[in-house]
Design a protein that fits this description.
The chain has one domain. 65% of the residues lie in helices and 0% in strands. The longest helix is centred in the N-terminal third of the chain and has 29 residues. It starts with a helix and ends in a 5-residue tail after the last helix.
Length: 357
């Protein structure tokens, strides 16, 4: 809104010329989201506590009963700061902005319903797995079809570390994009098990995609890096900046010992947002590198379940894999920081792949 208000005034008032630049508006969106989080966070914590929206803790696994009753649904804080910042600073005529906002909101609603059932029934089950997966796939499928039917869309798939290998997969792009969005959403959700564990890699991934989105939307930079030029993708850098800002503000309250948990309302939405951005800027496969922590968490669950069904034995002491390290005796803060370090390394590897081809 501010962009559309101030942009026409740039010719009359020279100071407003800065709103023309995506870099300025990305920084502004980051700071705006951070400010909103700081302002709204304490009120939201008090409100959730008053409504008894406390997180139920599973009886199996590592002992976290001391965290029982900590307000959950903290993802609402991230989504609020994110949405307001994007609406203030992004170009609202850009269809990419509305696609990622729509998917993020839809997954946020799904996560909210899941969290609400958990806290009202005081059980960690929430929505059934089938019902949750159905709505995730449906929403992701709508996004995939919208992207695939775009007039400027091509069917070539970018493969990291290979400059001239861009296979044309045709209509198979639709199920691939759907899978990527759903997998990213569930990967973040599985990672959200310790104080600060999920939001760190989310912010690091968003920061990585901030650069990639800006590069994809800039003709000269995209040509120099030999990546797909996606007109309009630069606006997604503003979304990524707002996500980083909102994440930082949430981390202020989520750092160990947490005063607020993210909940599915945040985890499902943020994972879906990262998956959607990866698809929109045509870096679908690179998401597996950028979000390698989420991939490892999801794979640990898949491997554990499959191996147990086949042999009756377990590969890990407990899945997702961060609980495995808890069982080994690692301190919670050590697990969180080390996962962040791994995420930073993977982000750097992903950026390096742009030239190492």
């Amino acid at each position: 809104m501010l962009y559309h208000l101030l942009y026409p005034m740039a010719d009359q008032f020279g100071g407003f010329n800065v709103v023309r630049y995506i870099t300025f508006r990305t920084a502004a969106a980051t700071l705006t989201a951070l400010f909103i989080s700081f302002m709204v966070g304490p009120w939201l914590i008090r409100k959730l506590a008053a409504l008894r929206m406390g997180q139920p803790i599973r009886e199996i696994g590592p002992d976290h009963q001391d965290k029982a009753g900590t307000p959950t649904m903290g993802g609402l804080l991230i989504l609020l700061s994110l949405a307001v910042s994007v609406l203030l600073w992004a170009d609202l005529t850009n269809r990419f902005v509305w696609i990622v906002l729509g998917l993020t909101t839809g997954y946020g609603v799904l996560g909210f319903v899941d969290d609400y059932r958990k806290v009202t029934q005081q059980h960690s089950a929430g929505i059934s797995v089938r019902a949750k997966l159905f709505w995730q796939v449906l929403l992701a499928l709508c996004v995939a079809i919208a992207i695939y039917t775009s007039p400027a869309f091509d069917h070539e798939l970018a493969v990291p570390f290979f400059k001239n290998f861009t296979p044309n997969i045709g209509w198979l792009y639709i199920p691939l994009a759907t899978f990527i969005i759903v997998a990213a959403s569930n990967g973040v959700n599985l990672t959200d098990g310790l104080d600060g564990l999920a939001i760190g890699p989310v912010m690091i991934s968003a920061g990585t995609f901030l650069f990639l989105a800006y590069a994809a939307g800039h003709v000269n930079i995209a040509e120099y890096l030999a990546i797909k030029n996606v007109p309009g993708a630069g606006q997604l850098a503003i979304f990524c900046g707002a996500l980083v800002g909102g994440g930082l503000g949430f981390l202020w309250f989520n750092a160990s010992p947490a005063d607020l948990f993210m909940g599915d309302v945040g985890a499902l939405a943020l994972g879906g947002a990262l998956g959607t951005i990866a698809v929109l800027i045509r870096q679908e496969i690179l998401l597996a590198v950028v979000g390698g922590v989420f991939v490892a968490e999801a794979l640990s669950v898949i491997i554990q379940v499959a191996f147990f069904k086949l042999t009756g034995r377990r590969v890990f002491l407990m899945a997702p894999i961060h609980h495995h390290y808890e069982k080994l005796g690692w301190a919670e803060q050590k697990i969180v920081v080390r996962f962040w370090i791994v995420s930073i390394i993977l982000g750097l590897v992903a950026l390096s792949s742009l030239k190492l081809r």
